[in-house]
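ok posting inputs for the EPU job
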Amino acid sequence: MEKLVIQGGKPLQGEVRISGAKNAALPLIAATLLAPGTHILHNVPDLRDTRTILKLLENLGVTWTRKDTTLMIDSTHVTYSEASYDLVKTMRASVLVLGPLLARLGRAKVSLPGGCAIGARPINFHIKGFEQLGVTCRLENGYVDAEIAGRMQGNVIYFDVPSVTGTENLLMAAVMAKGKTVIKNAAREPEIGNLIDMLKDMGAEIMGRDTDRLEIYGVDRLSAATCSIIPDRIETGTYLIAVGATGGEATVTGCNPAHLPSLLEKLRATGMEIREMEDSIAVSARRCSGNSILKSIDIKTMPYPGYPTDLQAQFMALMALSSGVCVINETIFENRFMHVGELQRMGADIRTNGHTAVVYGKGMKGLSGAPVMATDLRASSSLVIAGLAASGRTEISRIYHLERGYEQMVEKLTILGAEVWKEQE
Ligand code: EPU
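and the output
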């Protein structure tokens, strides 16, 4: 197994380019199951998770080739409808094949993902939605076995809380259902807009993009699509925060500032300078690193356009370096403070109580390097941020978590002037 070693304390500077979004690539790749032919997806990141979903599609009969960031996926032959535990346990987004397989073949058998490091994360909303479209779902031997004779029938589906992959799965099921489906209290994350654009390119009729009420008018057939994956807003936010934590100054390019409304306001409130351009963001924390200070700012994670849970851990690392006290409230997942214990090993002063963490900032030089352990993807990136800001050497073990969602992180950080490398454990 590999570990990441960081010799911290160097301000990040220069320019870094953002990759395509993991959480858009996964549903868009799954959506290729809906229609025969060769689909072309541009700006697809090469990540452990995108390789996992491609492996899953291969098992279903799909073939694909990659040239740079473009994937050509031929889903003419979808011959199998089962996603095994072996694949689903490594990536819960595998459940995204349920909707398209039901629409294309009328049958899908997918392993239940089980719990995960950040919370229970059930898929009951997905299953209830499919049932409302007329599907029979049996939960047996750790699998959901879903089946419908003929086409699904449009219906009104209401989510108790907006679910990102739930909305995506139901959208992909409803595009070929008979009649009209309405999804109420739908999630509004930009990745869903990206999926809607692809489905429309395939011939689907969907209204309400970017709103919490989606109307889908089912069509008889769809055809292969060409679509581009949007820039990764969580990777963008992670680099902005990393620059801030090291008192650096850099430009993050190839991103979409409009997808980060909440984070950019929070970063400005800390005293960092943020300049938004069409597809890049210039960030400077130079004036926070001298005699001036990084202010403590509260955050509460919420569905989009609120503050994203996927940037909570990284913001906590930043707040550990501030000069005041702030409250971080995690409302999406019940167990998303796994990074706290590791940040404490680096000198952070954080107290948690249920879904709330209080961070007592120790100032820009308040953390020191230590051996720490990555527990999930975003927790790992918060440890990288802390390691970059800390004095001395940090060693992060279990970095396979990072590789699930950050493309070429070592190379990108090196371009920004960080001293970071991989070593065998
Ligand atoms: N929920 C249910 N039942 C369901 C579905 C969701 O109770 O059937 C609950 C969840 O437990 C959670 C809330 O609803 O409390 C929202 O979860 P959601 O379904 O939106 O999460 P998800 O679709 O499983 C996606 C991202 C996550 C991201 C969340 C929240 C993908 C592939 N994953 O997960 O990304 O944290 O939305 O924004 O899009 C990551 O990239 O590190 C990551 C975890």
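notes: The chain has a mean pLDDT of 95. The pocket of EPU is lined by residues 23, 26, 93, 119, 121-126, 161, 163-166, 187, 309-310, 332-333, 377-378, 405 (CB under 6 Å).
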